Amino acid sequence: MLASLFGKRGAGTPIIDDGRIRARFLLQHPGFRLDVDLDLPSRGVSALFGHSGSGKTSCLRCFAGLDRPREGYLQVAGERWQDSASGDFLPAHRRAIGYVFQDANLFPHLSVRGNLEFGQRRIAARERKVALDQALELLGIGHLLERLPSALSGGERQRVGIARALVTSPRLLLMDEPLASLDLKRKQEVLPYLERLHEELDIPVIYVSHAPDEVARLADHLVLLEDGQVRASGPLKELLLRTDLPFASEDDAEAVIDGQASAYDARYGLVELCLPGSEARLRLPHAALQAQQRVRVKIKARDVSLSLQRAEGSSLLNLLPVTVDSWQVLDAQVLLTLRLGEQRLLARITRYSFDQLGIHAGQAIWAQIKSVSL
Fold first, then answer.
1. How far apart are CA 168 and CA 98, in angstroms?
2. How far apart are alpha carbons 35 and 325 in whole angstroms?
3. Would residue 170 be called left, alpha or beta, if left means φ above 0 and alpha means ψ between -120 and 50 degrees?
4. pLDDT in tens, 319-359
C-alpha cells in the first residue's frame, strides 16, 4: 500500500533548507550491496535509471524508510529524516511521502471516492496542500468517483493510485515503475497526466524506471545506477550527450530539447516551436497547443542528417543552423554533438560522410530533421 497512508505523520529534525534532497545509503543484502550518495534538486522529476538489479527499488525503499540502511542520511524539504551518525530515523509511516507502485494497490471494496478519501483522512485539513478536486482534475478521474477498482482499466487504476498519493500532500512523491504493468496504449494514456503533475505541482518526484523513453519524456535530473552504485548523476539533457555513458553509444541515442509553441498550421496539423537562443523554428505534426506552451522534444541521432548548405526544394521541414561542437568515432560511424542556440543535438553519420563534409570543430553547418520522426 502507499507508505504515507498509515500512522500519524511526524516531522524530521529541522535543518537549514538549501533547496536540495540529500541522501546517503549503505545497505547490504546477501549478494547485493547498495552504496549511493545523492544530491538531487528539490523541484521536478529525478529519475533513477538502470537495468534490473542495479539498485533502483532498493534506493527508493530507503527514501521511503521501508529499509533501514546500516549507514544512512536523508534530508528533505528542510528536515533531516534520518542520520545514522546521530541515531535519528523517521519511520516510514511518519514520513511525508506518497508512494506509487507498479500496481495501484487500490482497496477493492472501496469506490474511487472511498480510496481517495481514505488517503485524504491521513492529513489534517490545515496541512492539506493538494485538494481532492485538484487531484481529480490533474489526473482526469472525476467521472470515475463512484466506480469500484474492478470496473477500471489498468491506466485508470494507476491514475487513481497516483491521485491517492497526491491527496496525502506529500513533501516527496516516490514512483516505482508506475507504468511497467501497462501495455503501450495504457502507457500513452497515463504519460500526459504525469507530465501535468510535473508542470503544475511543486512536489519533487523520484521516479524509478528502466524505460529510456519514459525517462527522456519526464525527467529533469537523471541518476544512472549500476550494481548498486551511482555511475553518473546530473541534468538529463547533459547526461544524454555524454559519450562515456551508454546513452550516446546506443543505436537509439537521442537528445532532448525544449521549445515553446509559437504558431499552429491547422491545414497541415503542424505545430511550430521557437527554440531558446536560436532564430530557427522547429515544426512537427501535433495537435494545437496553447501559445507559449513549453514543449519537450526528443530527437534521435539517427534522424539528423547534415548538409553544408541549406537545402532547397526538399521535403524536409526542419533545416536548422548548428555549430559542430565535438564528435566520437564509433567504428564505421561518427556521433557528433551540435550546438543549436542554447541547446545541443546529436547526429549519427558515416565516417565517409564525415570526411566528405570536412567536419571540424566550430564549423557552421545545417542539421536536417524529418518532422514525422519527432
1. 7
2. 35
3. beta
4. 999 999 999 998 899 999 999 999 999 999 999 999 999 99
pLDDT tens profile 103-140? 888 999 999 999 999 888 877 777 778 889 999 999 99
Residues 6+ apart with CB under 8 A from 150: 108
Cell of 339: 550546438
How many Cα neighbours within 13 Å face the side chain of 134? 14
Could you give the CA distance from residue 130 to residue 128 in angstroms, rounded to a whole number? 6
Q: Which residues of 119-143 are buried (b: 16+ CB within 10 A; e: fewer)?
A: bbebbeeeeeebebebbbebbbbee
**Contact criterion met (CB below 8 Å) for 344 and 236:** no
What's the residue count for the chain? 374
The overall average pLDDT reported for the chain is 90
Name the grid cell of 134: 485538484
Percentage of the chain modeled with pLDDT above 90 = 69
d(CA 297, CA 246): 20
HEC string of 64-108 equals: HCCCCCCEEEEEECCEEEEECCCCEECCHHHCCEEEECCCCCCCC
Determine the Cα–Cα distance for residues 90 and 88; give it in Å rounded to an integer: 7
153-166 per-position pLDDT tens digit: 999 999 999 999 99
Q: What is the dihedral of CA 179, 218, 67, 57, to 10 degrees?
A: 50
Question: How distant is the alpha carbon of residue 83 from its chain centre?
Answer: 28
**How does strand 172-176 pair with strand 205-209?**
parallel
* Residue owning grid cell 542520511: 73
The Cα 33–Cα 71 span in angstroms is 12
According to DSSP H, which parts of 167-261 are helical? Answer: 184-200, 212-218, 236-239, 246-249
C-alpha cell at 29: 543484502
Helical spans, DSSP H, in 43-177: 56-64, 112-120, 132-139, 154-166
In this structure, are residues 259 and 295 in contact, taking their beta carbons and an 8 Å threshold? Answer: yes
- Reported as a pLDDT band with limits 50, 70 and 90, residue 90 is very high
Residue among 195, 39, 23 nearest 95 (CA): 23
In the DSSP assignment, the letter for residue 110 is: S
